[in-house]
Amino acid sequence: MTTLTLHLSRSISRDWQEGDEIVLTRLDHDANVTPWVLAAQDKGVKISWVNFDVEDGTLNLDDLQKALERKPKLVAVGYASNSLGTVNPVEKITKMAHDAGALVYVDAVQYAVHGSIDVQKIGCDFLVSSSYKY
Ligand SMILES: Cc1ncc(COP(=O)(O)O)c(C=O)c1O
Known about the structure:
With 134 residues, the protein is an alpha/beta fold. It has helices at 2-12, 34-43, 61-68, 90-99, 119-122; strands at 21-25, 46-50, 74-78, 103-107, 126-128. A five-stranded parallel beta sheet has the order 2-1-3-4-5, with helices on both faces. Strand 3 (74-78), helix 4 (90-99) and strand 4 form a beta-alpha-beta unit. The longest helix is centred in the first third of the chain and has 11 residues, at 2-12. It is globular, with a radius of gyration of 14 Å. Bound molecules: pyridoxal-5'-phosphate (PLP). Pyridoxal-5'-phosphate is lined by residues 1-2, 29, 31-32, 78, 82, 107, 109-110, 130.
């Protein structure tokens, strides 16, 4: 997944311009963070961070909504957290992001072993996983 994301982030970021924004979360595995941070640094792109509630481990969707008001190019989000087990509402997040014109990149490494995945229902643009996990 890390290799895929390093590769895809280079392709996806080709269209980014200086001053654009992307959205990352504080709940994600580093594999869905650092590749985007590196691409953002190279392109002069700003990062908005979505925090999570330390009591229940859920993503702060108000943070996301605020970040989306600035029309980011991309939202990278995990389907399920490797550290806390939180299953994120990726279908809802995708709808919110698409309404703002952002691409959605889902890290499904932790989720894929626990549940079936319907990418058409989620509607995301990219969903990546690692077969060695299952
Ligand atoms: C949620 C999550 N994303 C990404 C990765 C990285 O996957 P890979 O080892 O295929 O690069 C892991 C690895 O444990 C993970 O738990």
